[in-house]
Amino acid sequence: MKNAITIREAVTETDTAVFWTQLYHYFERDIFPEISDREDEDRAYFLGEEYRVNMQKIHDRRQNRGYYLFFQRDGQDIGFAMPVMYTAEDGKCFIMEYCVYPEFRGKGMGRACAGVLLNWAEENGALYAELNYGGNERRLHFWESIGFIKNGADEWGEPLMMLPPKEDVPIHIEILSDAEDWQLGKLENGFLKEIGEEALTEEGRKRLSQAVKDGKITFFVAKRGYRSVGMCSVAECFSTFACGSTGVFEDFYVEPVFRKKGIARKLAQAAQDWCGKKGIASLTVCCAPCDESMYRALGFDVHLGTTFAYLP
């Protein structure tokens, strides 16, 4: 069919070389046209050998592999994409890179190519799609027009978007067992971003991990198959009023795409039940006035006055 957009995979050395040449042009032209101090480090990485080596390893692995794809129309390449298909995990297609060449942009070509890519992903086992839009407003609006929704941040604090899964999958709650789980960092950064705080630093991640290992804090995570989509935590402390342990409820967060599905209630209930079994005298939460009704509905219905804090 004339003007139909198709996908072809770069499989030969020549095609792969062309793909990376176009990818580097895309970085220089569209991603790093003006360089700040921070972006200069990013530019060096993405245009350097390390990024290519890392992506080639993902491309070459047998499971959860990446693809070098070209969009083609009437026998001519008009753009490219680099998705990674996590079919051995929870069916995620993560779109690492996406570009329509400048001379072919306009008249809905970007949306048309994105639709072809998403159809290709579904045919190859993807159940949903995710990407990092880099905080760029133009890319944000483009992917929103496709149906993607802002959805927290990744383990490095970069903003994510997701095309919601078509099917509901049962959610179960479990206690975090791996203090090094990268998904904990992803959820923490999504939580911090939502409340206007900076993402975890490397030092912060190490301290958080150590606190989990030492039993100072216990995390409850909502799992949708492999993917962690929500969390809460309980930090224990000794109370002279109770002459025993009390708990502080914190880190309450559900990824935006998965809200209004009862996950928040399941998380709060799991934390409350755990406290009851451990003989923890009380579980308290400090919240903004706008969240009071939510916490009351979740069982935090005993008012203990106003909390003040000293921050050295």
Short recap of the structure:
The chain has helices at residues 13-31, 37-46, 49-60, 109-123, 137-146, 182-194, 202-213, 263-278, 292-297, and strands spanning 5-9, 69-73, 76-86, 92-100, 128-132, 149-153, 159-163, 172-175, 217-224, 227-239, 244-254, 283-284.
What does this molecule look like?
- There is one protein chain.
- With 312 residues, this protein is α+β, with helices and mostly antiparallel strands.
- 36% of the residues lie in helices and 27% in strands.
- The chain has nine helices and twelve strands.
- The radius of gyration is 23 Å and the shape is elongated.
Helices and strands, with pairings:
Blueprint (H helix, E strand, L loop, with lengths): L4 E5 L3 H19 L5 H10 L2 H12 L8 E5 L2 E11 L5 E9 L8 H15 L4 E5 L4 H10 L2 E5 L5 E5 L8 E4 L6 H13 L7 H12 L3 E8 L2 E13 L4 E11 L8 H16 L4 E2 L7 H6 L15
Parallel strand pairs: 4-5, 11-12
Antiparallel strand pairs: 1-2, 2-3, 3-4, 5-7, 6-7, 8-9, 9-10, 10-11
Distance from N terminus to C terminus (CA atoms, Å) equals 69 Å
Q: Which parts are unreliable, with pLDDT below 50 for 5 consecutive residues or more?
A: none
Order of helices and strands: EHHHEEEHEHEEEHHEEEHEH
| Inertia-based shape | elongated
Biggest sheet details: 7 strands, mixed
The whole-number mean of residue pLDDT values reads: 93
Relevant terms:
312 residues, alpha+beta, 7-stranded mixed beta sheet, 5-stranded mixed beta sheet, 36% helix
